[in-house]
Design a protein that fits this description.
The protein is an alpha/beta fold and 250 residues long. Helices cover 43% and strands 27% of the residues. It contains ten helices and eleven strands. A hairpin with a 2-residue loop joins strand 9 (136-146) and strand 10. Helix 1 (13-29) packs across helix 9 and helix 4 crosses helix 8. The N and C termini lie far apart (39 Å).
Amino acid sequence: MNFRLLETGFDRACVNMGIDESILKHVSEGSSQPTVRLYGWKPPAVSIGYFQGLEEEVDLEACRSLGVDYVRRITGGGAVYHDMELTYSFIAREDYVPKDMLESYKMVCGGLVAGLGILGIEAEFAPLNDIVTGGRKISGNAQTRRMGCVLQHGTILLDVDVERMFALLKVPSEKMRDKLVKNVKDRVTSVNGVLGREIRFEEASQAFATGFSKSLGIKLSKGILSESELDLAYKIAEEKYNSRDWNFKR
């Protein structure tokens, strides 16, 4: 099956989410190919799951003082700090993936496992939606199905700054923060941490593009966002993902 590969670089949180939703709509209408997109965040951002409360999860004053964006996703899951990572989205017709949620996560995450293998990291899928190496999480993923399509996106941690992450997320107390920091450091790792050297975004992007192609048995051809996709992406970004109504809704 032919998929489009989009490498859209680094953008604001609202634009990144707007692009994903725009592609989803165009794939659902048949005007765009199924797509694997690889991208980053500039400035860094915190995204919260669809069912979370922004003010309950995120220290908004810390975000403002540190120049960190925030946004609500259309997918579920918890709050995620996006900085030193490669983010992907996989968008295709729903009939391309298994109906069973666990099996569909396993299928798509196979591309991440393969990409990590190319970088020299032995990893495996950990239900429901994580990738682990050496028993430690290196990737988290989230999925939604709508308009007859599946959108799965997630992060591959190239590096991780746990202290900075918890400076942006709300915790009950400083004592609890220290415990959480230690717990996450024990449970979470990164590509650079495992390999002991720095992997550049471009090198990781190439590895995961190859990983998706090999694991899913798809032909990935480099493409660009259409004018229609871009127009809709920026419209959605400003009217939805950059709006108080969306980000602060309960």
